[in-house]
C-alpha cells in the first residue's frame, strides 16, 4: 500500500478546507495511506521570492523537520509550493551540511498532486464525473518550473461528461504572483482582468487550475465581474461524482 | 529623453497609466509573439541554437579581455580607430571631440540603445550640433521628446492617430493617421538630412572579434544611409557586444530576427569592417568605434547577475511579459525596459535607485522561455530581490526597514509552528467580522491592496480539525 504525506500548503490551510478534504478522499480511494504532519506551516516561498533568503531558512527547516520524520513521498495541491521545495530548498543550505542533505532528500520525494497521480500512481482516470463545459488555466510555476504541460488536461479528458474548451492565452500569468498583488495592485488587477475576460469568452461554466494562489485571484476576479463562472481547483473537479 | 533618474518609482508610475499605452503595446507585441512562434516552429533546431548561443555568449563574457583585445587589433588593422569609454560621460566626450575635430554641424543617427544609454543626443545638442534620429520609431520619439519604450520598437506605446497628431504639431504639416503616409513624410524630411550630414552615428548588434567587423541588423535602410553617406562614421557599442568569430555570428543572426520581429532575417544586415580603403569605394573616410563599459565590467564580477550581459537586445522577453504589456516601457524608468530592463537597470544604476524593478514581475517565467540566449531572468530577479531585501556583497539592503521587520516577524511565525497554528485558529474569527455574502470585500492593510481589485475568499481553516475528528484513523497517522 503506497504511503504519502499530505502537504496542505498555507493557502490551502487558510482558504481551501473542502479541497484538502477532497484531496484526502481521492488519495485514500486510490489506496494511499496518508500521513498528516501537523507541524507543517508554509514552505517559505513568500519570503524567498521576495528576497528574504535568510529569513526563509527557518521556515524551510520547520518544513523539513515536519516531513523528515517519515520517508514517504510528500504530496501537495500547489505547483508553486512544490517547485519551491524541489528547486530552491537546496539553494538555502551549504552543500555538505546535514540540512542540505535533508533538503536534497525532501526535494526528491515531493510531488504536486496531479504529478503524483499521473507519474507516481500512474492513474489518469479517478472515476470522476463532471458534466460541464470546462476551460483550463495553466499556472506559471506548475507549467514552467515543474514542466507539467499535459498532466492536467490528461486528467480532465478522462472525467465523465466533461467538455474541455481552449482558453485564449492559457499560459499567460493571471497576475497573482504572491506579494505582487499587494506590491503592484494596479498591474496585478489589469493582468487578472485580462484573464477573466478570456475565461468569459470561452463560454465555459468552470475554469480549472492546479494552484490555490491563482484560484483565489481568478475566483475573486470572476466574483468582482459578477460572472457565474465557477473557478475550481483541479482536485475539486476530480472529486466530483455522478449525482 | 530624461536625465539619469535618482530614483525609479515603478509603483508610483503604475498607479496612473494612460489606458492607451497597454492597448497600443499589446497590439504590437502580440504580432511579434505570433511571428516568433511561427518562425520557431519551422526551425526544428531552434532549441539547439538557443543553447549554443547561450554558451557562446557566456564563453565570450568569461574571456572578454581576450576578445576585446583581438577586436581592437582587427579594427585598427582595417583602418578604423578604437576608443575606450569607461563611463557614459567618457563616451559623450569622445564623440564630441571627434565631432569638433571635424567641424561637424549635423549628425544623422541610426537606432542605437547604447546612445540612448549615454543620452548622446542631449550632449550633441548642448554642443550646438544638430542630431537627427533616422529610424522612424526613433524619429517619432525624438519629436515627442521621450526615450524609447521598447528595445526594438521605440514608439510602441503610440498609436497611428497619436503619431499623426504629433507630426501635425511638431512639423506643422497635414499628416493623416496612415502609417504609409507618415513614413513617406518622415522619409522626405530625412532624405535631405542624410545628404547634408557631416557625421553618421550608429550602434551595433555584434562586433566580430576575428575581423573587427561591426554588424548592424536593421529593417528600414536608414542605418545604411547613416553609415555610408557622411564621410565620418562613429559607432558606439557596449563591450558586451563582442563575439568571437563569423561562425558564432551565424548562430546569432539565426536567433535575433526570429526572436525579435518574427523575421527569418532582418531586411538589412550590414557588415562594416573599417572605413573605405580607396576613393570610389562606398563608405566613410573615417571609422571610429567607441567601446562602452559604463558599469558592464562591474556587473561581470557577479556570477549570477552577469548573465544579463548575454542579452542580444531582441525584446522577446518584453513581448511575452504580462507586466510589461500592462505598464509599457516608461514604467521601468530607463532606456531599457521589460524583464531585461528589470534585471539590467538595478545592476547599472544600483539598487538604491532601482530597488523596485526586481519586484516588477510575478516570476511567471515566460521571458526565460523565449530568451534566445537563455538568460535565467527569474533567477536574476530573485537574486536582485535578495540584494534589495537582505543585501549582498554588491550592496547593502535598500528595502525600507518596516517591511524588513514584517518579513522577520512572518519568518518567526512560520518557523515556530505553534504560533502559525494559533494564528490559523484566530484568523477566521478575526476576519469573520468583515465577511459579506461568503466573501471578504474588504480586509485590513496590506490585504486592502488585494481587495481593491477583487474580494478575498473567507478564511475557513477547517482541515486540521476535520482531520483530527475523522472517525476512521488510518494506520501510520501522526497526531
Relevant terms:
heterodimer; A: 243 residues; alpha/beta; 4-stranded parallel sheet; 13 helices; B: 479 residues; 6-stranded parallel sheet; 4-stranded mixed sheet; 10 strands; 49% helix; elongated
Give me the secondary-structure topology.
The complex is a heterodimer of chains A (243) and B (479).
Chain A: E1 3-6, H1 10-15, H2 17-29, E2 33-35, H3 45-49, H4 53-68, E3 74-76, H5 79-92, H6 98-108, E4 110-112, H7 113-121, E5 133-136, H8 140-145, H9 151-157, E6 163-165, H10 180-183, H11 185-202, E7 206-209, H12 212-224, E8 230-233, H13 234-238
Parallel strand pairs in A: 1-2, 1-3, 3-4, 5-6, 5-7, 7-8
Helix pairs in contact in A: 4-6, 5-6, 11-12
Chain B: H1 10-14, H2 20-41, H3 46-62, H4 64-77, E1 81-85, H5 88-101, E2 106-109, H6 113-117, H7 120-126, E3 130-133, H8 136-144, H9 160-171, H10 179-196, E4 199-202, E5 206-208, E6 213-218, H11 222-228, E7 232-238, E8 242-243, H12 246-260, E9 268-272, E10 286-292, H13 296-299, H14 316-320, H15 322-327, H16 338-348, H17 351-354, H18 366-370, H19 377-389, H20 401-415, H21 417-431, H22 448-451, H23 463-469
Parallel strand pairs in B: 1-10, 2-3, 2-4, 4-7, 5-8, 7-10
Antiparallel strand pairs in B: 5-6, 6-9
